[in-house]
Amino acid sequence: MQPTIGPMGEHDVAAVAQLRLSAFFEGTGRTLGEDAAGLRDLIAGDGFEAAFVARIGDTPVGTCLLVRHELEPAHDLTPWLAGLVVDARYRRQGIATALVKATEAHAASRGVEMLYLYTWDARGFYAALGWNIVEICSSDGETMALMSRRPRL
Fold first, then answer.
1. Is 112 exposed, middle or buried (0-12, 13-18, 19+ CB in 10 A)?
2. What is the pTM of this model?
3. Which of 18, 48, 90, 133 could form a disulfide with 61 if both were Cys (CB 3.0 to 4.6 A apart)?
């Protein structure tokens, strides 16, 4: 079954927060409730920031965000493609690429001229989508790449 990509709704929040918690926040002390609250704030915002969800049927299997701020104070740049994650059972099916493209298109529709992201281990994935390494840096002792791209509709 092909996934559909669309804006995150309230009905997606719990499943997406669980997916994000497992991917990004294990061992950090961040709770499911905290992440869900952050997602709710994001989707209730002014429409510039956005959250996209890949669904198989009614089940969220991936997500990607457009946010104004990311990993502060590492860089004073904005906006950011952030939080890309696809459930391990659905990887290597083009879902992450579709989520990135949806996020880029949203950014372009909002007049964004340059979009940024951080990645620790997915440089090749993003480079294949046209992202360029701006800088190799570190955060909390971890080496990461700051990447950029002009978003396209």
1. middle
2. 0.91
3. 90
